[in-house]
Specification:
The structure is a single chain. This protein is mostly beta strands. Among the domains are: 263 residues, Regulator of chromosome condensation 1/beta-lactamase-inhibitor protein II (Methylamine Dehydrogenase, Chain H); 77 residues, no CATH class. The chain contains 2 helices and 50 strands. It has a 4-stranded antiparallel β-sheet, with no helix packed on it. A 3-stranded antiparallel β-sheet has the order 1-42-41, with no helix packed on it. A 3-stranded antiparallel β-sheet has the order 2-3-4, with no helix packed on it. The longest helix has 8 residues. The termini are far apart.
Length: 729
């Protein structure tokens, strides 16, 4: 077994397969993530406090909740439940403290020195601070409690322990501000960080870096002392008009009265390069090698090292149409065709190229990303060490994309496949594949699903990942993990093969009712028809612990040590597409007409009248008119096949010949190209079509009436992008 960059232990990428279930699949879904990496997302605005930890970041929102992002190797981004009622927050190297409105402290993350073990009684606190491995809490009576690592006396609060109004923790030392404007320091003093410069008076704020401190004076000047190896104590001139200070490991920050941020000290990772526009800042904070700034509009700006995604402020958790995840990063496709990336970003895999618009599908590899545009071209960004983002020419006619570890796959609209990047195990040997409707990539192998329900594979077979179990037929979806595969059968069962070191191929019973699958590094995830998620295999990082509520999921993705789910928001008020006797209707028979188009009829909505059980015979007719404009002498024959109408709107149905409208079921009004039933044709509809590729007969998703759902149906969606149902009059 070979090694590449220390990997080959099971990494990668489950291709998220979006399949419609019995719920309404509308644009506007949110994302939930669990496991090693942090992929939960929240709103960008509305923050009141931001703090930077070693390799992670925290934001306190105005609603009392905490948002965390960046490295989560010790659970430092797993805010404990209930995530509510917080009034302050502090971040250490890999642990956090949250102050509740009731004066208690919640602590989470690394606890190797007991830094998360809040002493009793856990009450009466008014402020919190976190050092590298220790914690500090300020009580309402002006005393300070300290716990955690104390090898250098950083928890030995000097006497008298009273009169304190603010605290801050450094690596192995602590500083605190007294109510008389003086500063007290204790703990490790190897760089003089506990020797407060004279005159020790007039301070209004103090903050600690690794081995240095910054004190803000009432006259707006800053005093710095302690370790100065990178000039972090060399306050730039003019040293005046400062209103806030922040200290990182080896760098310092200050906010001026006009909202400008000044930074100095170590800058090898850009931690002092304030993001433009440098205006409107209210507070700043520094981590190991990154910085955060809070703006007066409640937004957060980050700059500096982003290897663990600590500078990727989570995006608005709404309006997602699809989600995929790579080894350390996640991509979310928005309903408006834009892409959001977050997580590990060392190679720029989260930096979506401009213009960020017109995307219809995305894929994530180990350190690269792919996006399919609505014109059939592919955009690639991130790492390119093996040519994995060098899309072959002609870059056109693509209908889908997939990413392996260091290789990429593009599915053409004609069913052929193009592959590029690392090919050391022939994982790019797809030139003979034809009739393909879906593709997926593992670490060293590739998988394709053909339109006749068979699976094609190529690449490494070290773990049997290319030995498709027999019979190789009846498959409707496929996902490739690091060294194993998952395939979904038409009957809702899942077939798994390849490496089974951690049970990733042991599908739980009952093996039924699955509608989507995603294969990760050493674990697997399946989506059930009831919207719940089942996960199995390795769970060392919590990647199989599906968060509550385990419901309403419409898509899943999996990678190395983490899982992601796309979750449906609260159900829409409208009825779902399909025959439904409880349609929205008024007492005057104002009712919605249906899209339902029999194969062979031109694109457009139509009405199908179906007799209810025990209802009247389908014979007879209805007159119909626009709800706002009466159209006389027009009749719509109540035939089973329906009738194509020229427009999409609400109609007033009036029974003739004594027929009762209530005796019939009329399906919901929608648009033919609106595959997810959202009421508007958006790029989200591409994902729904993708999930039904290969279906034959009178399929709802056979938009062009060819008799089979193919990638050509994408063009119908594209032609109707932006069309929407008018509001009910």
């Amino acid at each position: 077994m070979t090694a590449r960059n220390g990997l080959r232990q099971g990494v990668l990428i489950g291709v998220a397969v979006l399949v419609s279930g019995p719920w309404v699949m509308a644009a506007g879904k949110s994302i939930m993530g669990w496991g090693h990496q942090v992929f939960g997302v929240e709103l960008r605005g509305g923050f009141e406090v931001v703090v930077a930890g070693g390799l992670h970041s925290l934001g306190l929102r105005s609603d009392g909740t905490i948002v965390a992002w960046g490295c989560n190797s010790d659970g430092e981004c797993d805010v404990p439940s209930p995530n509510e009622g917080f009034v302050s927050v502090a971040a250490g190297y890999a642990h956090n403290l949250g102050l509740k409105a009731d004066g208690s402290i919640a602590a989470w993350g690394l606890n190797n020195y007991g830094q998360c073990d809040v002493p009793s009684p856990n009450e009466g606190f008014v402020a919190v601070a976190a050092g590298h491995y220790h914690s500090l809490g300020l009580k309402g009576d002006g005393s300070v409690a300290a716990w955690g690592r104390n090898s250098d006396g950083e928890c030995d609060v000097p006497l008298p322990n009273e009169g304190f109004v603010a605290v801050s923790g450094g690596r192995y030392h602590s500083v605190a501000l007294k109510d008389d404007g003086s500063v007290v320091g204790w703990g490790n003093n190897g760089w003089g960080q506990c020797d407060v410069p004279l005159p020790n008076e007039g301070f209004v704020a103090v903050t600690a870096g690794m081995g240095h401190n910054l004190g803000l004076k009432s006259d707006g000047s800053i005093v710095a002392w302690g370790l100065n190896s990178w000039g972090q104590c060399g306050v730039p001139s003019p040293n005046e008009a400062f209103v806030a200070v922040g200290a990182g490991r080896y760098h310092s920050l200050g906010v001026k009265a006009d909202g400008l941020v000044v930074s100095w000290g170590r800058n090898d990772k850009g931690q002092c390069d304030v993001s433009a526009p440098n205006a409107g800042f209210e507070m700043v904070t520094g981590g190991d090698e990154h910085s955060l700034g809070l703006k007066d509009d409640g937004s957060v700006v980050c700059w500096g090292c982003n290897y663990e995604g600590q500078c990727n402020v989570p995006p608005a958790n709404e309006a997602f149409a699809a989600v995929v995840t790579g080894s350390g990063h996640t991509l979310g496709l928005k309903a408006d065709g834009s892409v959001v990336g977050w997580g590990y970003d060392a190679e720029g895999e989260c930096d979506v190229p401009l213009p960020n618009e017109g995307f219809v599908a995305v894929a994530a590899g180990e350190e690269h990303s792919l996006g399919l545009k609505d014109d059939g071209s592919i955009v690639a960004w991130g790492g390119n060490s093996e040519g994995q983002r060098s899309v072959p020419l002609p870059n056109e006619g693509f209908a889908d994309v997939a990413a392996g570890y260091y290789h990429s796959l593009g599915l053409k609209a004609d069913g052929s496949v193009v592959a590029w990047g690392l090919d050391d195990y022939n994982q790019c040997d797809v030139s003979l594949w034809q009739g393909v409707v879906a593709v997926a990539g593992g670490v060293e192998h590739s998988v394709g699903l053909t339109d006749d329900g068979c699976i094609a594979v190529c690449g490494s077979n070290d773990f049997g990942q290319c030995d498709v179990p027999l019979p190789n037929e009846g498959f409707v979806a496929v996902s490739a993990g690091a060294f194993h595969n998952l395939a979904l059968k038409a009957d809702g069962s899942v077939v798994a093969w390849g490496w089974n070191w951690k049970g990733e191929c042991d599908v739980p019973t009952p093996n039924e009712d699955f509608i989507a699958v995603a294969a990760g590094g050493l674990h697997s995830v399946g989506l059930k028809s009831d919207g719940s998620v089942v996960a199995w295999g390795s769970n060392t990082l919590g990647q199989c612990n599906v968060p509550s509520p385990n419901e309403g999921f419409v898509a899943v993705a999996a990678a190395n040590g983490h899982s992601v789910g796309l979750q449906q928001p609260a159900a829409r008020a409208e009825s779902e597409p399909g025959t439904d006797s409880t349609l929205p209707r008024t007492t005057d028979n104002l009712i919605a007409l249906v899209f339902d188009r029999p194969v062979g009829l031109p694109v457009g909505p139509a009405l199908r009248v179906v007799p209810m059980a025990g209802g009247a015979d389908v014979g007879g007719s209805f007159t119909y008119s626009l709800a706002t404009t009466v159209m006389s002498n027009d009749t719509l024959e109540a035939t089973e096949g329906g009738m194509v109408l020229a427009d999409r709107t609400w109609y007033r149905i009036t029974p003739v010949e004594g027929l009762d409208v209530a005796a019939f079921t009329l399906e919901v009004c929608t648009l033919l190209a609106d595959a997810d039933g959202s009421g508007v044709v958006t790029t989200a509809d591409y994902s729904v079509i993708k999930a039904h590729l290969g279906e034959r007969g009178n399929s709802r998703y056979d938009l062009n009436g060819s008799g089979r759902v193919t990638t050509a149906d994408y063009s119908v969606v594209k032609a109707h992008l932006g069309e929407r149902l008018p509001d009910k009059p």
